[in-house]
Write a structure and sequence with these properties.
62% of the residues lie in helices and 0% in strands. By secondary structure, the protein is an all-alpha fold.
Length: 81
């Protein structure tokens, strides 16, 4: 799974967010956030869901951002029993 930084930067620009603001919204430090977007640290599903909600991403856009492939699907709230 490779994080798509170009698509992320586009979403930040589109929504008027800085990387620091996104890191704060996810509840991680800025250095930790940079490791995640540089593919040096794994994303928690809760962080992925927060980013999806922050940018109001469609399933296709989510998959593009996180390099999940077209048919991948996950949801913290939908998949719980």
């Amino acid at each position: 799974m490779a994080f798509n930084r170009e698509f992320f930067d586009y979403q930040c620009f589109k929504h008027g967010k800085t990387r620091g603001q996104v890191a704060a919204a996810l509840g991680v430090t800025y250095p930790t956030f940079l490791r995640k977007i540089d593919n040096m640290s794994e994303w928690k599903i809760s962080e992925m869901e927060s980013l999806v909600n922050l940018f109001d991403l469609s399933e296709t856009d989510r998959n593009m951002m996180f390099g999940l492939g077209e048919k991948c699907s996950f949801s913290i709230t939908k998949d719980l029993p």
